[in-house]
Design a protein that fits this description.
This protein is about 75% helix and about 0% strand. The chain has 2 helices and no strands.
Length: about 50
């Protein structure tokens, strides 16, 4: 069954301001990549200390 939903101008503006699915996926990928780079840097620091 279909249900009719009526929204006001304020709600329409809010919905229009939301990021797209692709933008949200890109944000998640960027956050994961950033975290992975930090972990890799920390591991490299440990390796460098052990080598010294």
């Amino acid at each position: 069954t279909e249900e009719l939903v009526v929204i006001g101008d304020d709600q329409l503006d809010f919905l229009a301001s939301l990021k797209s699915k692709d933008e949200l996926v890109a944000d998640v990928v960027l956050a994961l990549k950033s975290s992975a780079i930090k972990v890799a840097g920390a591991l490299q620091t440990i390796v460098d200390k052990d080598a010294a």
